[in-house]
Structures
1.
Amino acid sequence: MTTTPTRRVRLVAAATFIALVAACGGVQDASDSQDLTSDLADAEIVAPVEGMECDPGTEPTGEPIVVGGSLSLTGPLAPTALVHDEIGKIVVEWVNECGGIDGRPLERKVLDDQSSPAQAASNYERLLAEGVDLVMGPYGGASTLAGAGPVSRAGYAYPTATNGAPGQLIGENHFPAHQFGAGVTDPTKMFDAYAQTLLGALNSSDTPPETIFFANAKFPTTLSYGAAAEAALEEDGKNIVGSVEYDLGTTDFSSIATRIASEDPDLVYLGAIGADVTNIYLAFDAIGYEPRAVYAAAPSPASIANLGDQVEGILLTSIYENHAPLGDTDIARYLAVTFSEAAEADGLFPLVETQAAGGFAAWQILLTAVNEVGVDNAAIIEWLNANEVSTVVGDISFDGFNNYGEDFNRVTQVQDGKRVLVWPEDVAGAPIDLAP
């Protein structure tokens, strides 16, 4: 079990951060001359959510407000879940540096579910029995669904950082930061908006792909992603030249790489999670194959960064990248500074992207409600179902099936070593660039 300290002063050298951004492929808005990193020297602490007071000179006192959660600190989901763990630590320290919530310190208890949904459910049962005040959801669709049972029975609000299991009912206590479905009420349509966003991104290119090969991890989210994308692309006239599924935790992709190479598609669609992208590119290298274009659904950020120039041009599912307009707020800038420092110290990908932003947005959902109605799960559930919450990924309201509200699935591309949103146009920092 990990218990986060209630307070730690965080001092950041802006020059060091700017150098780190450059070294790791930091992104600035390609359509605007503004460089967000130029403002980081002036990034002062602000409250992590709108409407919350921040008094960095005040030490929180009294009984701590304890938030319990389960995360995959080990196992195949750990490369991504560790990002969410880092965000949780940052948020607790951030709130306590601001003087706490109503003067009370925030505390966090995390149990390792070892990437097992059954263990995640057991962890929440244990945390609830221990009397935690609030909970935060786990990482991954299967674990999110498993944890929903005990959390819902206990009447707790259930904010989640990742997309959970959109096609499976959780209930009105579910408050996801990764929004799906664009408010549809039919669970079979939950991934249609995601698929249309991907299709729109590909067709916005001067050279959209005509042939596509699908390789999907056997994981609830990636399978749902892949099925919807395959149907939408095929309906649009794309030629699906192959489709395979592989077990979660697979490390040897040699046979899949060989099949892909034999078809040599215009686009390889990877329903990838965790370190899958790293491993499949190693398999491509082993046979001397260079794919024309690759789209990856849910890889860990480190698996992309570690490949360097090999993944130039890769497309990724994303809800956030640290450039204007989404990154151009005081809260986003302070998050970028604090996360960069903490993640670098712990050997994680040091820039805020989908996972870090989604994790932070889930905490913003919870903290906004607590700031409004206090530490009362019934009141939190009622308030969130009736109100909109401002987060780094966008303004979130909770309606439609499973409270998924809007659809925040966007498309990122690595361009010149930098991650940049390319679709939809209202958040894009650059147009998509697919090689002919």
2.
Amino acid sequence: MRSYLDFEKPVGELEQKIEELRAMQASGDVSVADEIERLEAKAAQTLTELYENLTPWQKTQVARWPTRPHCLDYVAALITDFTPLAGDRKFGDDEAIVGGFGRFRGESVCVIGQEKGSTTESRLKHNFGMARPEGYRKAVRLMDMADRFGIPVIALVDTAGAYPGIGAEERGQAEAIARSTDACLMLGVPNVAVILGEGGSGGAIAIATANRVLMLEHAIYSVISPEGAASILWHDTSKAQEAATNMKITAEDLMRFGVIDEIVPEPVGGAHRDPAAAIEATGAAIGNALAGLSGLDRDAVRRQRREKFLNIGRVL
């Protein structure tokens, strides 16, 4: 059974009625085809209207929705011959960040992404996409390898933020994030980042400092979560909705400020309603971004990336 976000309840009620009518029709007792068709049209129209006018807080809910496709879903659909690599060669492996090498549309690529997990077991395994220092050090190792062999890097971003645990801090979380960000900036090969759902704080920036930053239509990207901002500013997490509105965390806002380069459209009702279509659109956007960077030499790649981020400050 499909589950619904709070603001999707009008659609849920209509779709429940449709299912009830289909059950009646299947029993052969009554012909309700016309009524089903009418309700389907009404549900589709209601869904379209809802998603055309989402508030920043509603977009936050969509970005966090557990059935939204995650990093490994994109890897499975877009990357062939994928070979994952593990470990940072210093402490251990962190499964919040998955990475390795494969082929995207026939060309070799390095893929680094944050995986939240889709079941209770996998969420615990991947620590809900919140990486520890060894995860970012693994990302640095993969980026260094990609740079050495002239292989473009694709980053798939989906995290509430870096893991804030004591052990992570003891092992140098801030230093690991800084070195990963620096590794992104120093790459002599093109890198493209895609904000799939949540792009939270330094945990996202560590792998998203790229030549091209793409963002799904209903994703969010921010220095802190709305709840965290509300707790700091008002000492009241119930004001998260107000914080989300004021923080300018939506794709439309960030495109206007020049923080991202392209908005990837999602199917009506969000990526979770039609994961295959969302993944296909994302693949097309990644392909176009890489094609636009393919003619640049190493110095030009670094220069373009440097100017991109300096321009954010100049514009603002």
